[in-house]
Structure to design on (183 residues):
């Protein structure tokens, strides 16, 4: 088996105009409807929620980025109101007019309080692969640069729209009638 390598990491931040105490990122990530997911980026096609046999929540997301079509299977790894990490150990990626590959994706979101009425959302997505065929594709500098550009553009597009959706839900207090306890 080929050694797992990290080949991408993108991070973006956005403001949420709501108190940190009213935000629950773990509930947000694992209850996001397909329509809400689609509204957060032009490449978002579908989202579905589920639960594994051990009780961990999961979300299955379908999206495109540039010339790539992806199906991710995020499993709840860290689930706190102010920090959520979903890990998709077996994301499928199809490159236009090319073969199918696999990769691992870490979707990490955190909120930090700015003041009583606003927070900073930071979304970090990190990519890994042990797929030898995909690693060979990534060795082509032009293809790798194009993929990095598409990846960064996508994260920069979706993060402020994620923040707006979280803000809307926090202000509506959909996660709780009482303020949430945040570590």
């Amino acid at each position: 088996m080929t050694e797992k390598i990290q080949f991408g990491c993108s991070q973006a931040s956005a403001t949420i105009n709501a108190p940190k105490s009213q935000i629950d990122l773990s509930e947000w990530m694992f209850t996001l409807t397909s329509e809400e997911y689609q509204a957060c980026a032009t490449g978002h096609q579908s989202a579905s929620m589920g639960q594994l046999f051990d009780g961990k929540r999961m979300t299955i997301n379908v999206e495109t980025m540039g010339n790539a079509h992806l199906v991710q299977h995020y499993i709840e790894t860290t689930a706190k109101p102010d920090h959520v990490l979903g890990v998709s150990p077996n994301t499928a990626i199809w490159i236009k007019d090319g073969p199918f590959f696999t990769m691992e994706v870490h979707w990490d979101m955190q909120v930090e309080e700015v003041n009583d009425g606003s927070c900073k959302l930071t979304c970090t997505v990190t990519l890994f692969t042990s797929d030898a065929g995909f690693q060979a594709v990534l060795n082509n500098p032009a293809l790798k640069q194009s993929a990095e550009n598409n990846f960064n553009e996508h994260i920069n597009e979706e993060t402020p729209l994620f923040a707006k959706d979280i803000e809307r839900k926090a202000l509506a207090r959909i996660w709780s009638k009482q303020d949430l306890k945040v570590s």
